Amino acid sequence: MTTSARKATRVGKTGTVAKARGTGEGTGRARADAASQASRTRRKKGGTTASGLSKERIIAAAIEQIDRNGLMGFSLRDVARSLGVYPSAVYWHVATRDDLLASVVEATMADVAPEPGKLSWQDWLRELFSRCREVIRRHPNVAQLLGGHLVANASLSPGMIDRILTVLVAAGFKDDQIVDMYNVVIATMVGFSTLEFASMPTDDPAGWAAQLQEKVSSIRALEFPTLARYLPAMANRSFIVRWQNGIDAAMDSSFRAYVETAIAGMERALARD
């Protein structure tokens, strides 16, 4: 083979190798781009991964975990385990534990506020308060989020807030009263029920209840005469002197009294102006 022929052969081989290398690199880039696009698609809000995992499924699993284990025992790892996925899969859909807890509040409270315009403002509020109490009765461990954690504010529901404000304005409250009346509504909606359905002790609840019953029954009448007088009616039916929460000892009449007192106070505030 001549020198010219050998050079031509080397050039041909080099070109073939370069072409093959270029084709491989191009294919690799294409695959990487496709994978990146797929990842972005999976992370879209409300999207579903190839495994069928979605934010809605994660929220439902989180509610189930909180109902079963309480807020203190709640973790994203347990949620992931219940769904049969790795924790990293959950993080495709929720940024943090607090983000998921806010979504839990939003989901459980989604249908609490009735549609305005069909009831008097007083009856609308009664319905609102009753619906919220029923949600907390079904999910008592969520009550801790509503009443004691600002993380619940991240579940901001413009629709619910707008409905409350719409009802207050239609009732005739003036602009300088709206903020105070709104806060009264939220406190009434959440306050009583979060206390009524407060979590029971997890460490020997039966022993704790027996100990509290004994403590209540041993209150000395001579030292605390007024308390002793009303104690038979109050025992296990009143805040502080009870050993069961609203799941086993509902406080229906007290809830109604609380609601009616709040509404009567709002009516007086409206009449003053």
Q: Can you offer a commentary on this structure?
A:
With about 270 residues, this protein is mostly helical. It folds into 3 domains: about 55-95, Arc Repressor Mutant, subunit A; about 110-200 and about 250-273; about 205-245, no CATH class. About 65% of the residues lie in helices and about 0% in strands. It has 12 helices and no strands. The chain starts with a helix and ends with a helix. Mean pLDDT is about 85; it is low at about 1-30 and about 30-45.
Summarize the structure.
Residues 52-112 form the HTH tetR-type domain. This protein is mainly α.
Q: List segments where confidence is low: pLDDT < 50 over at least 5 consecutive residues.
A: 2-28, 30-46
Q: Quickly count the domains.
A: 3
- Summing up helix and strand content along with how strands pair, one would put the structural category as mainly alpha
Distance between the termini: 111 Å
Estimate the mean pLDDT confidence: 83
User: Helix and strand succession?
Assistant: HHHHHHHHHHHH
Radius of gyration: 31 Å
Percent range of helical residues? 55-70%
Strand portion, in percent?
Answer: under 5%
Please report the number of helical segments: 12
Domain HTH tetR-type: 52-112
Protein name: TetR family transcriptional regulator
Keywords: DNA-binding, Transcription, Transcription regulation
Pfam family, one: TetR_N
Give me some keywords for this one:
DNA-binding; 67% helix; HTH_TetR; transcription cis-regulatory region binding; flat; 3 domains; 12 helices; transcription; 0% strand; mainly alpha; HTH-type_TetR-like_transc_reg; Arc Repressor Mutant, subunit A; 273 residues
